[in-house]
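Is uracil placement plausible here? Inputs below.
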Amino acid sequence: MRMVDLIEKKRDGKELTTEEINFIIEGYTKGEIPDYQVSAFAMAVFFRDMTERERADLTMAMVNSGDTIDLSGIEGVKVDKHSTGGVGDTTTLVLAPLVAALDIPVAKMSGRGLGHTGGTIDKLEAIAGFHVEISKEQFVDLVNRHKIAVIGQSGNLTPADKKLYALRDVTATVNSIPLIASSIMSKKIAAGSDAIVLDVKTGAGAFMKTAEDAKELAEAMVRIGNNVGRKTMAVISDMSQPLGYAIGNALEVKEAIDTLKGNGPKDLEELCFALGRQMVFLANKAASLEEAEDMLKEVIRNGKALEKFKEFIASQGGDPSVVDHPEKLPQAAYQIEVPAKADGVVAEIVADEIGTAAMWLGAGRATKESDIDLAVGLMLNKKIGDPVKVGESLVTIHANRENVEDVMAKIYDGIRIADHAEAPVLVHNIV
Ligand code: URA
Ligand code: CA
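Reply from A.M.:
I modeled the complex. Tokens:
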């Protein structure tokens, strides 16, 4: 087989066989096929697309390019949740203990954040002592004992995707549905869960700017998952504004605790129920999504979800007393208000602008090597659709530096006040 013939075949809009796709991915992973040929191939896929079968084959070829996690030592249906990336997205911190409180095993492999989106591991490390550097054996044992554990991403998971994603980034081929869908699904499948719930974000802060594109991506991923034997469902949710009020690591832990107590922001709560009920349903613990949602509400009401969060923190070396005493979380030295410059209604809180402002404070990483400050971040005091009076605080900046003029200017860039505006629909679609 020659790579040039396969590029030509895809360029001409023909369907590649399983063997041909394996040849490309294996050869690329081993370094036998050069970047320039794979660039041309990615561009051909960008214009010619892939059939459902090709997408599943590409996904599995990338899964098989590296290590896969074997979760067969964990009893029960393991359900994973994945978000395509948002600002102030605190859902995993809430969902993991919430679902585990219903005896559904949550075996979570997670990464650190890059850019303006935060990683779940960074957030959890805001809890003193909490660590994710555990062996695979410990991980399986913790899930069997507590129904919940989080481990850092293994180094050699889907190396083909790592290489291809970096190449796509510099060849204008990121934004292709078959390539995004296979990239995301390969990582989820390699991580070993039986079922997968996807949160596909749409809006300014997301990859997919429109709900239609997001739906197409969601459908592509759900089909790949189901075609390779993992039960998969998706929710399409709004990321035109940040989720909840808190953006920043310790601030989001506090927000998760509030939500597990039943006092969380309404949008965060709604999304947690929308995703959580799919997780419970796919785990075969409920006969319908409605029943699943009732079960989730009950473990918040009776305190079991909060207890599970404490148990989880303690089991990975963290101090569980932060749940009752969130003031023990890292605190920033300065709290600075951002006053509204006009009367009206908040019409826009552009998620990626606000995320960037939080990153400048040190809440996120500008490069992979940057250190982050767990205490800093932003608390929104208003959301889209809220009325506001001049001088009222739009946002509270939690900073460890006194001069935050740059951050304040960025926040003003991201927030628009108008005469009328309505809160956006949070959950667009269920796939
Ligand atoms: N996230 C991924 O992991 N892969 C893509 O291709 C796009 C977003
Ligand atoms: Ca949040």
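Short version: The radius of gyration is 22 Å.
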